[in-house]
Amino acid sequence: MAPVPYEVVAKRRETYDTITLELDAPDGFEFRPGQFNMLYPFGIGESAISISGDPAKTDRIVHTIRNVGAVTAALHRLELGDYVGVRGPFGTAWPMEAAEGKDLVIVAGGIGIAPVRPAIYEALNQRERFDQFVLLYGARTPSDLVYQGEVKDWRSRFDAVVDVSVDSAGSDYRGSVGVVTRLIPNAPFDPDNAIAFVIGPEIMMRFTVTELRNRGVPRDQIYISMERNMQCAVGFCGHCQFGNLFVCHDGAVFNYDAVRSYLPVKEV
Amino acid sequence: MSTTPLLLTRADLDRMIEILSERGYHVVGPTVRKQEHIISYGEISSTDDLPIGIGDEQEAARYRLVERGDGRLFGYVLTDTSPISFLLPSEAVVWSGKKSDNGFETAEMAAPPRLAFIGTRPCELAAVAIQDKVFLGNGHQDPTYAQRRAGTFFVSVDCTEPGGTCFCDSMGTGPGADGGFDIGLIEVLEGDDHYFVARSGSDEGAAVLSEVGGTPADDGRVAKAAAMVEAAAGEMGRTLDTEGLKEILAGSLDDPIWKELAGKCLTCANCTMVCPTCFCAAVENRTNLDATEAERVRRWDSCFNFEFSYIHGGPLRPSAAARYRQWMTHKLSSWVDQFGMLGCVGCGRCITWCPVGIDITANAAAIRARMEEKAHV
Amino acid sequence: MSEDLDITAELGRHSFMKGVSEEVVTRIGACADGVASWGEDEMIFRSGGEATKCYLIQSGEVAIEVYSPGTGSRIVQTVSRGEVLGWSWLFEPYVWSFDARVLTPATAIVLDGEAIRHCMNDEPNLGYPMMVRFARLIVGRLQATRLQLLDLYASRN
């Protein structure tokens, strides 16, 4: 299971601490929305990074990376023409088929928008498969918002409800301010007939689920994506265990019912 | 595979070791490490290397070698670590790589020599079956383990004198081996009558056994040996009630009892280092100074290590109680969901080698009592 | 303010009033001043001002902000369609704590604070369901504030 080198062919700065890298995949790279790769800047180390590109475009592997440690810092230093090792794709996917014919509600917090972007692409490219499409995206401040141009394009679509909220902003900001969960009560979807994908920091997901449940969305129609220490990505190293689950291969995307008993327990 | 049992002598065992060597195996068996005062698996070339007449006393946080005053070859209870430390070495290079024009190139490691284990205990065979499930039978195949496991040969020796921390009878993994061995032995020493009842458990085992020779075992000796193993089931130093334990533990995560139970835990990770089913490993990336060559190393890790659960910002299980809970609930509860079996074989090593004598059997009983008491409130 | 709207009907459509009886809607409707609209950057109220009205936002986005000399204004939260702006009219001394500034042109049903207070006080059958709604609103804001305090998306180190 050695990593395979891929060439960096595009690098975009998203925010002050986040970039997007595009890797050339001449032989094609297929994945399902929600899956992740292990990225290996040669000699430094490996880190689990979600795939954030369009699943229909198999000639590129796209990753959005926040600089939070030694490996991600090394990934930030990569330039065009550099190579990065890739193992993957790993993990479970957002259940697009479960949302078919239903309202698809996506709630993303912070960098969590990246792992769910492939699902957004797929849903918007195949809009007819779903009833309502609702994306609620929260971030800390306006300068933490990634994919700003794209989000603007999505918002301008008549067949998609896209709301953005930041936790705090200066007075020149024209958008919503407040935690993302407050967008849920008035979002236009039918709770009985909705499938929700929730991703972000764990507390944010817990409160989002609470709001969705308040709206009447059944537990088993809610999916969340967990983050744990992933080293091998195939269930051998043991680090990512979450109760009886291996986040790397039982997840990272879980039905809420599968994980709900563990979420409130400290230090699971 | 189970043909008529054979009767082997010590000389036959020597012959067996020779045959295995000739067949290309590195033969590993229990040996006395004089400096450390332990019996540990190591390479052997004849029965002279075995712990002849040496026994071990095992209790919580206690391990002593003792002179038995007899000539038994397998008169000890258990080695410190199990054959797993060979199949899953404490440190193994997974691949090595070099920078190149197209990024880098990697090479997988060459296959290590095949190993034959002499003296494997039934609980250790059960542990191997568990590791097979983890590394070979759960969707992905682990090359490091698969490479080493593919050629292994097990000569097991059933237990007739369980130790103070043994509870394999509770876990259904001993004291006799039902399978998983290539050759299964029971050692009997009565006065001057020293013999091994042998049966084969695989084609390779049968082939080796027929080359060794031996004589067909008489019913009396076979029955005698079987009776000793059967009697051993009643002489376990510990017991562990597994009935409903998975659910009890799963429902106990929030209970303050974990703080109590882990109160003296030093998070030293000894239990996980000697446990034959612990499989957690850290993936390390090493590089030379100019970063042109690198290798990936898999090294034993432990859920007791502070950094084990690290995600950016800090570890998710900073408290000793949470780490102890993770370890114990993994063994006796979540393992069942993950692999369809318990993750404990009852070898008792974690009890023996815990420097403060934390006892998984006592703690399982304490949690059971606590949860039952809660249920009745 | 436009006078020709059926204010009771408007009120009944607002999600704050979801689940209350028609009778209560009618009674609260009698406390309404009408529907007001504001343009970008207009101030609906200012911190320290007398809190006499309650605003049920129908459209647009309003920022609740606080000004601190030197650092300038900071938006604490925005409220939009279906939400309620202002509860300082509910308790003495009836003084606004924050500024409310319109971010995108907004309309709101304006209720008279004193009138609702009397209404709720005199008619517990109306007062209770209304108070539950205001309590839910305040609890929601409190939770949101706690989450903001947690700084969810910040790096943990």
Describe this structure as you would to a colleague.
The complex is a heterotrimer of chains A (268), B (377) and C (157). Chain A is α/β, with parallel strands linked by helices and 268 residues long. Chain A has two domains: 4-90, Beta Barrel (Elongation Factor Tu (Ef-tu), domain 3); 96-225, Nucleotide-binding domain of ferredoxin-NADP reductase (FNR) module (Rossmann fold, 3-Layer(aba) Sandwich). In chain A, 19% of the residues lie in helices and 31% in strands. In chain A, the strands form three sheets. Chain A has a seven-stranded mixed sheet with strand order 11-9-8-7-12-13-16, with helices on both faces. Chain A is globular, with a radius of gyration of 18 Å. The model of chain A has no long low-confidence stretch (mean pLDDT 95). The relative contact order of chain B is 0.16. Chain B has two domains: 6-235, no CATH class; 245-376, no CATH class. Chain B is globular. In chain B, helix 1 packs across helix 6 (203-212). Helix content of chain B is 33%, strand content 25%. Chain B starts with 5 loop residues before the first strand and ends with a helix. The mean pLDDT of chain C is 90. Helix content of chain C is 33%, strand content 32%. Chain C starts with 6 loop residues before the first helix and ends in a 7-residue tail after the last helix. Chain C is of the alpha+beta class and 157 residues long. Chain C has one domain (7-150): Jelly Rolls (Sandwich), CATH 2.60.120.10. In chain C, 34% of the residues are buried. Chain C has helices at 7-13, 22-29, 113-122, 124-150, and strands at 32-38, 43-45, 53-68, 72-80, 84-85, 99-112. The chains are: A alpha/beta (268), B alpha+beta (377), C alpha+beta (157). Chains in contact: A-B, A-C, B-C. The A-B interface holds A 1-3, 5-7, 40, 42-46, 68-69, 72, 83-85, 227-229, 231-232, 234-239, 241, 243-244, 246, 249, 262, 265-268 and B 94-95, 97, 99, 102-104, 106, 108, 134-135, 138-140, 142-143, 250, 253-254, 279-283, 285, 287, 291, 293-294, 296, 298, 301, 303, 308-313, 316-319, 321-322, 326, 330, 333-334, 337-338. Strand 10 (169-170) of chain A pairs antiparallel with strand 4 (72-80) of chain C.
- Secondary-structure-derived class of chain B: alpha+beta
What is the CATH superfamily classification of chain C? Jelly Rolls
Q: How many angstroms separate the termini of chain B?
A: 54 Å
Outline of chain C? globular
Q: Sheet bearing the most strands of chain B, described?
A: 8 strands, mixed
Biggest interface, and residues per chain?
A: A-B, 39 and 51 residues
Find the count of extended strands of chain B (DSSP E, 2+ residues). 16
